[in-house]
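Q: What changes when glutathione is included in the input?
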Amino acid sequence: MKYELYYWPEIQGRGEYVRLALEEAGAAYVDVARGPRGVATMMKMMDVQKGTPPFAPPFLKAGKLVIGQTANILLYLGARHGLALKTEAGRLWVHQLQLTITDFVVEIHDTHHPLGPSLYYEDQKAPAKKRTDEFWGERVPKYLGYFEQLLAANGGAYVTGRRPTYVDLSLFQIVEGLRYAFPKRMKTFEKGVPGLVGLHERVAARPNIKAYLASERRIPFNEQGIFRRYRELDR
Ligand SMILES: N[C@@H](CCC(=O)N[C@@H](CS)C(=O)NCC(=O)O)C(=O)O
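A: The predicted holo structure follows.
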């Protein structure tokens, strides 16, 4: 079976957490919206008239299943491709961690869009500055400190032990994205989270991930995605 991933074609965004899992698994997939008339096809899939239409991208078509919500897609892929823990308690734990990352992703987005997605960044620059200061002062230490402590507590190479799960792939993306968007702040901050820095290196060196990152399938970061580099927010 070839999976069909549906996500906005110009950005990594939330689709990237799914792409990383598909790539690590070596799964066959097509990134539909990046192909001809792909966005129109994606919009049609969200038609609420029938089936289980998703509210927003990303979503994944797997045979007859259409699965929306990033964490839900990863719950599905993790079980099928050995990217999660096997017991019920383990599956829920990994899913719980991913939902925490989901919350963090919203907060990352809100650094440049604190007043919501309808206004341009340029129309909310002052609140964005205030929000970003709070984000780096309180929220990054709290979220990343949590994952750092989990890594230290189990002494493993990855958050849940010796083998990577989709949560580790997502944390790789978080570190990579924060380095892109906030190079100065991150340079200072990451001195305090050596475990996460190590995890990032280990994920980046995994053969399938390494090949993916060097390929054209990996869309470069840009200022339309979740992680945006605005110099004035990175002081
Ligand atoms: N909680 C959802 C959020 C999905 C989401 O916000 N998708 C964005 C792109 S990253 C979108 O296209 N949203 C359209 C909208 O909210 O109107 C997830 O994690 O997948």
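Observations recorded in class: The chain has a mean pLDDT of 97.
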